[in-house]
Amino acid sequence: MKRDARSTARVRRLNQRQRKKLRLGEFTEYVFDVELTFSEPIDVESYYGFTDGLFGFLEGRGLLGGGFGGRFPLTATSGVITTLERGSPGEDDREAVEQWLRARPEVADVRVHALVDGWHGGTQYGHDRTQ
């Protein structure tokens, strides 16, 4: 059985350099998932216009998005949001992204998920992503 890299006993045995290298303990980096449903199928040109605006907004907040896309015409897509530098987005970043997406006319529905450990899975509170 595979050992959980985040177990409290294991993290306590590691020194600060090791925790930083493994992104554990106080060096854990969180990300959040976003799921979008478009109000009508979106073509390639409209999608690129939408993502240019989204990535410009994210960059202005020091965030980075990835994983968006799919087969065209798109009816839905999903992706992950993290920070440009080391660190984690905050709750205010999650709310700002959700508000920006809800204000877009081409977006019918948005689901912004909880912060999860970007390197080892699980949520901010140590629960499994699937729960």
Labels describing this entry:
131 residues; alpha+beta; 5-stranded antiparallel β-sheet; 4 helices; elongated; disordered C terminus
Overview of the structural elements:
This protein has 131 residues and is of the alpha+beta class. The chain is built from 4 helices and 5 strands. It has helices at 8-13, 16-22, 44-60, 91-102; strands spanning 30-42, 63-66, 74-83, 107-112, 116-117. Strands 1, 2, 3, 4 and 5 form a 5-stranded antiparallel sheet that branches. A hairpin with a 7-residue loop joins strand 2 (63-66) and strand 3. The longest helix is centred in the middle third of the chain and has 17 residues, at 44-60. It is elongated and about 55 Å long.
